[in-house]
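User: Structure please.
Assistant: Input sequence and predicted structure:
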Amino acid sequence: MLRVAEQAHRTDTGRQRNANEDAYFAKPPLFAVADGMGGAQAGEVASRLAAESFEAVGRGEESPETYLRAIARTANARIHRLAEADSSRSGMGTTLTAALVDDDEVGFAHVGDSRAYLYRDGDLKLLTSDHSLVEELRRQGRLTDEQAEDHPQRSIITRALGPEREVEIDTMTYRARPGDVYLLCSDGLTTMVREERIATALADAPTLDAAVSRLVSEANEAGGRDNITLVAFRLEEAEVPAEPEEGVTLVGPAAEEAGLTAAGVAAAERAEADEPRERAAEGGPVSPSRRRRGLTTAAKVAAVVVLSLVLVGVAVWGVRQIYFLGGDSGGRLALYRGLPYVLPFDVKLYSETYAAPVQVASIPADRRDSATSHTLRFHGDAVNLLQDLQRSAEQASGKRQGAGKPARGGAKAGGKSGGAGGGRPGAGQKQAGRSAGGGG
C-alpha cells in the first residue's frame, strides 16, 4: 500500500492576466486542477465550482474511476445550471484533471487541456490526452508534434465542464510505485515551459515545493501569458503498524496471585505431565486434558478461518491484476479490470477503468478481433494494446476524413486577428462556442 509522503501546490495569475480563473483541490488522497473559461469572471466561478465539488463528497465502495466520474458529472451539472440561469455567465466552463490515490494505484478523471504527468526514474510521462483542436489534428496525422507545440490554435479546447448538459469524461487507472511523483497542471504551465524543463525541475529541486515554485517562475519568465496552477504529490510505501500483543502482562504481586511464579508454573507442568499416568493406573483411557482439547479445536478453527481469508484475499488480488479490452455501451474501445463474466442477478466480475475516444468499429478490420476477444492481460500489456489500437483507428479515420470538426465545447479565444484559420487566440482567455475545423 502506498501513501502520499509529500505534496505541493501553487496558483499564480501570471504576467498578462488581471484575474486568476484557475482553481485547485489538494487534500490527500484526492487532488484536482481546474482552468476556467468565460467572460465577466464566469471562468473563475466555473473552476471554483469544480474544485469545491470534491469537498463534500465521501467515497464508498466504488472504484476510483467511478467516484471521480460522478464528481465531474455533478460539477458539470452545477456549472451548466448556473450558466443557464444567469445570462452573463452563459457558456462558462472549465477544464478538470483530478487524481485519487487508492492503495497501489492512482485513478484519474480528465476533461479539457489541463494535464497529468508521472515523473518516475528520471522520465516524465504525459498520462492524459488534451481535448483540443490541435491535439485532434495531431492524432489524425495532420500536424507533427513540433507543429502542435507552437500552433496558433493550440488554446482551442473541444471538451469542458459546463457548456453542455452532458459531457464525456475520460477516466483511467495507473499502477503506482514508491517514489512516483504526479503533477497536475493547467496549460498556463505547459504552453510556457517545455516538458524537458519540467522534468529537470522535478529532478533537481530538493523538495516538491521548491520544484513547483521554480516551474511557476519559469512560466512567468517565459511570458506568463495565462494563469499558472500546479499540484504535485509524491508516493512512498505506507508503514504497516505493529500488531499489539495478545493478552495482558502481569507484573509482580498480580502475577503471583495468578499462580504465575516460577514455582507455580513448574508445579502446573508436573501435574499436567502426571495426569496421563494416573489415568492409566486407574485403567482409564490416556487422553489430553479437557482444556488442552479445547485449545486444540480453537486453534484448528482459527487456522481454517485464517487460511480461508488468505485464499479469498489472494483471489481478489489476482482478479484486480487482470485486464481485458472490449466495447462499452457506446461502442467505444474500453479497458476493463477483472474477468469478462456476468454471474446470475447481473453480478459483474469486471469494472470499466477507461474508455478511449474511438469507436471499436473504426479500428481496422484486420485488428478488430484484438479489441473484442476479451483476452486476459496484465495491466501494462492491456494499456499498450489499447493505445496501439487507438492510434490505428485514428490513423484510419484521418485517411477517410477531410477537415476535422471538433465537438462543441469551450474555446480559448480573443487576441489579434491573423494567423491560420482565423483570429489568433490569446493564451488563456476563454469563451464558449463551436470550434472551427481546419487550421492545420
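The first strand starts at residue 2 and ends at 12.
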